[in-house]
Amino acid sequence: DAGVTQSPTHLIKTRGQQVTLRCSPKSGHDTVSWYQQALGQGPQFIFQYYEEEERQRGNFPDRFSGHQFPNYSSELNVNALLLGDSALYLCASSVTGFGNEQYFGPGTRLTVT
Amino acid sequence: QKEVEQNSGPLSVPEGAIASLNCTYSDRGSQSFFWYRQYSGKSPELIMSIYSNGDKEDGRFTAQLNKASQYVSLLIRDSQPSDSATYLCASASGGSYIPTFGRGTSLIVHP
Description:
The structure holds two protein chains of two kinds.
Chain A: E1 5-7, E2 10-13, E3 19-24, E4 31-37, E5 44-50, E6 53-57, E7 64-68, E8 74-78, E9 87-94, E10 103-104, E11 108-112
Chain B: E1 4-5, E2 11-14, E3 19-25, E4 30-38, E5 45-50, E6 54-58, E7 61-66, E8 71-76, E9 85-93, E10 100-101, E11 105-110
Parallel strand pairs in B: 2-11
Antiparallel strand pairs in B: 1-3, 3-8, 4-5, 4-9, 6-7, 7-8, 9-10, 9-11
């Protein structure tokens, strides 16, 4: 049973550039959430996708956008990168209606220089 | 503002001892509670979920929930050096699909 997968593993970008991160949910899961985790902090919720629509959004600017595809996979896009966007980006998948248990992928380490 | 509070630690225990990790939450509407383990440089791994008051045991792990006092705890029996990690507590309210995470408690199990 494949778990949550994310790509790429690591990424280095320059300020002002744009980046796209990808996530495939665990088999049987229909909901994808994205989190940003800075060093020494807990994961901060960016947004959640269900049925190809953004269902909830955290306190992140519009530079952060996403998409969910019919196969439940998802993308996170960040425009106009800032140094402060450097973090571990986590994708978590879950099944809506089943206790909110979320399973995380390995993450993408983004470094903005 | 929904908050989940954890002591950042580090909590240091000897091998074989019981490690006790605690967490408090502010949202009285919280109904789902989770403990994640996160090794340095890795992503969080779900180790326990608890939804009802009382204790829930899974192997060496026991989660305890007290909704009246708004706290959740995780006990790790017979602690091993491989348990050394950061433990994240999270809670979700009944009307939300999104857990709120604490900052985590660093646990060090020394031989």
